[in-house]
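Late entry, written up from scratch paper. The run itself happened at the end of the previous shift, but nothing got recorded in the book at the time, so transcribing now.
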Amino acid sequence: MKEAILLVHFTDRARRNQLVKALLPLRLPLKEIPQEDYGKRIGYLAGVKELGAEETQSLGEELSGELLVMAGLSGQRMDQVLRSIRKSGIYIPYKAVLTPSNQNWNVWELFEEIKKEHEKMSGRET
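Output as recorded:
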C-alpha cells in the first residue's frame, strides 16, 4: 500500500493549513475526506481499491472532532508525522493507523472507536 495521510473533518481552514504546512517536508500525500465519503470503507479511501467504493453505511452524525489516519507508513515514518505535528503545536487527539482490522470500517465507525480509546486512555470514559 502506498503512503497516505487522510484528513477527516478538518473544518477549521487555519488549523488544516497549519497541519499541511507541518507535514509538507515529509512529502506525504494528504487526502481530505469529504463528508459525503464518510460511509465508504476507510481502506478504500486510503487507496486499497480492491475493497470497493460501495457505502458500508448511509449518512451518520456529524463528527465531534478531527481525525487523522496514517496509511501505509512504516514505524519510522509514523514517528516523523507525530513529531512534526507535535512541533507545530497542533493538538489532534484522534489519530489512527490503517490496519487489516479497521480497513473495512467507515469513517464514523473508526472515529467512534478511536474516540472511545482516547477517552479510556485519558481517564474520561463516558
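Helices lie at 13-23, 42-45, 75-88, 107-121.
(Scratch paper discarded after transcription.)
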